[in-house]
Design brief:
Elements: H1 3-13, H2 18-48, E1 52-60, H3 66-83, E2 92-99, E3 102-112, H4 117-126, H5 128-131, E4 135-144, H6 145-152, H7 161-173, E5 180-181
Antiparallel strand pairs: 1-3, 1-4, 2-3, 2-5
Helix pairs in contact: 1-2
C-alpha cells in the first residue's frame, strides 16, 4: 500500500468525501512540488550566486597590432557606454588578449540579465559601437554572477591558466587594469 493510499484511507475513515480527500491529496502534491522547486533554486543560488547575468564576449580582428587593438577596444567601450543600454547598468568588463589559439583580443562584459541573450546580441550587432569598431563577433551567454564575475577576474579552469598569465603580463605592459566598471 502506498503512502497516498494510506493517507486517503485515513481521510475516508474520518468522514472526508472521496472528492474532498482526492482534492486535498492533489493540493499536497502541488505544495510538495513547489517546496522541491524552491529547495532546488536555493541550492542553486548557494552554489552559483543569486543574480542571473549575461557574459557578452566581443571579439576583435586578430590581425591588428597591439596598440591598434587597444585603441579599438577603448573605442568600442566608449561608444558602448554612449548607447545607454539597460543591461549596461552595473556592468563589469575586462580586456583579454590570448586564448588557446594564441593572439585573440576580446572583451568580456558581465551585466545583470534583463533580456534574452539573443536580444542582447542583436542589439549590440546593430549598435554604433559594433559597426564603428574593428569587431568581428559578438557572443552572449546567460549564467549566474558567481561564475561570470569570477571568470572576468581571472578565476578560470586550469587549462586557461597560461592565458590568464599572458593576459596579466600584457595588461601590465600597457598599463591596463584587470577589470573595469562600465
Amino acid at each position: 500500500m502506498s503512502v497516498e493510499d494510506t493517507i486517503f484511507g485515513i481521510m475516508r475513515d474520518h468522514g472526508w468525501s472521496k472528492e474532498y480527500a482526492g482534492d486535498m491529496l492533489y493540493k499536497m502534491d502541488v505544495c510538495a512540488d513547489k517546496i522541491r522547486h524552491i529547495q532546488m533554486k536555493l541550492q542553486h543560488q548557494r552554489v552559483f550566486g543569486t543574480k542571473l547575468t549575461v557574459m557578452i564576449t566581443i571579439s576583435f580582428d586578430n590581425k591588428m597590432k597591439e596598440e591598434e587593438t587597444i585603441e579599438e577596444m577603448n573605442k568600442f567601450i566608449k561608444l558602448f557606454k554612449e548607447s545607454d543600454y539597460k543591461w549596461c547598468e552595473n556592468a563589469c568588463y575586462c580586456y583579454e588578449f590570448f586564448s588557446a589559439e594564441g593572439w585573440n583580443p576580446h572583451i568580456h562584459l558581465v551585466s545583470e540579465k534583463n533580456d534574452a541573450p539573443s536580444t542582447i546580441a542583436k542589439a549590440i550587432k546593430r549598435s554604433p559601437a559594433y559597426k564603428k569598431s574593428n569587431v568581428y563577433n559578438c557572443n552572449v551567454k546567460a549564467g549566474h554572477d558567481g561564475f561570470h564575475y569570477k571568470y572576468i577576474q581571472g578565476d578560470k579552469k586550469e587549462s586557461k591558466e597560461e592565458n590568464v598569465i599572458k593576459d596579466n603580463e600584457f595588461r601590465e605592459k600597457f598599463k591596463l587594469k584587470s577589470h573595469y566598471i562600465l
